[in-house]
Amino acid sequence: MLENESIKLLETKIENLAEIIEIEKKYSQFISQYSIAQHKEVITNKDEKHLSIFNTYDNALIGYVILAGLLNKNHTIEFRRIAILKRSMGYGSMTIKLIKAFCFKHYKAKKIWLDVFTDNEKAIRLYKREGFVKETEIKAPNEEGRSVYMMSITR
């Protein structure tokens, strides 16, 4: 379990997936939509980690994170997904801090990378504040018809 005074991240349980799908729908303009089956695949894949984010105040599910490449021989981990229900409350920053510490300490990651739509300005500002830097821009076309930035942080 990863936690601080405000949030805790626990391995996602199947019974949380319906709520997670609803959180995902709320941010469909910024994240790809997974089916329940796809989320279950992530939960059972040893190379990926599906974590649910809970508010410690009332233990409410407020979001989730997906990491991939945990077994990567180059120690490069993909920060595939973060979705948080309550925005502008600092939960994103807290979650990213916990994820960075977890990846660098537990998995001995040398690099954590992500992609973000170029028009997702709020997320880009958050990632920059947390030390991620833009590496490159991948121009559309993609399934959403939008360009993405590849961003990363190294140990």
Which terms summarize this structure?
alpha+beta; eight-stranded mixed sheet; 8 strands; globular
Structural features, described:
The chain is α+β, with helices and mostly antiparallel strands and 155 residues long. Helices cover 28% and strands 34% of the residues. The protein has four helices and eight strands; from the N terminus they run E-E-H-H-E-E-E-H-E-H-E-E. Strands 1-2-3-4-5-6-8-7 form an eight-stranded mixed beta sheet, with helices on both faces. A hairpin with a 7-residue loop joins strand 4 (61-68) and strand 5. The radius of gyration is 15 Å and the shape is globular. The two termini are 22 Å apart.
Summarize the topology.
Elements: E1 2-3, E2 7-11, H1 17-26, H2 36-44, E3 48-55, E4 61-68, E5 76-84, H3 91-105, E6 111-117, H4 121-129, E7 133-138, E8 148-154
Parallel strand pairs: 5-6
Antiparallel strand pairs: 1-2, 2-3, 3-4, 4-5, 6-8, 7-8
In DSSP terms, counting alpha (H) and pi (I) runs of 4 or more, how many helices?
A: 4
Question: What is the CA-based Rg, rounded?
Answer: 15 Å
What are the secondary-structure elements, in order, as H or E?
A: EEHHEEEHEHEE
In round numbers, the mean pLDDT is 91
In oligomeric terms, what are we looking at? single chain
CATH homology group: Gcn5-related N-acetyltransferase (GNAT)
Describe the global form: globular
Q: Helix amount, in percent? A: 25-40%
- Could you tell me the CATH topology label: Aminopeptidase
Instruction: Flag low-confidence runs.
Output: none
The helix-and-strand class reads alpha+beta
In CATH, what is the class?
Alpha Beta
Strand content: 25-35%
Give me the side-by-side strand order of the main sheet.
1-2-3-4-5-6-8-7
**Straight-line distance between termini:** 22 Å
Query: Quick one: biggest sheet?
Result: 8 strands, mixed
Number of strands: 8
Q: How many domains, as an integer?
A: 1
Looking at the overall shape, the CATH architecture is 3-Layer(aba) Sandwich
